[in-house]
Amino acid sequence: MNAPVLVVEDDPDLLALLEMVVADAGHRVRTASNGLEALARVAEERPGVILLDMRMPVMNGWEFARELRARHGRCCAIVVLTAAENAQQRAAEIGADGWLAKPFDLDDVLAAIAHHLADRDGGAPAAH
Asked: Residue ranges of the Response regulatory domain (predicted)?
């Protein structure tokens, strides 16, 4: 079974939209509304890609990324989703693998997921 995509977003409307779009594209989706929930999801099942909002209550994206790396190393790709003026800088601050500035095109989200899942699998076809 393919690794899930973990969507970490505190805006419930955006979280629901991303969950629907990513699932409709054929991916399994896990969700979390803050970094603390996201760490629990990673502990339950390692995702292939994490779509990570940076500004969240309880545990923000910076704290989550630091704790994820401390516990699991570079176990999975992180794509930052941010409304910050310099999305690339936010991504660099946490050593993320990619970024998308809000508002983003949903096709770009799916392309980023596909790109990072292919990198994770080494571009090799799935075993049967």
From this structure: 4-117
The closest alpha carbon to 49, from 77, 9, 19, 20, belongs to: 77
Give the domain extent around 40. Answer: 5-120
CA–CA dist 65, 36 (Å, integer): 11
For 1-128, list the strands marked E by DSSP. Answer: 5-8, 29-32, 49-53, 77-82, 98-101
Of the pLDDT bands very low, low, confident and very high (cuts 50, 70, 90), residue 125 is: very low
| Global pTM value | 0.90
- Would you state the pLDDT for residue 77? 93
In a domain, 125, yes or no: no
Tokens of 104: 């983003």
3-class DSSP state of 6: strand
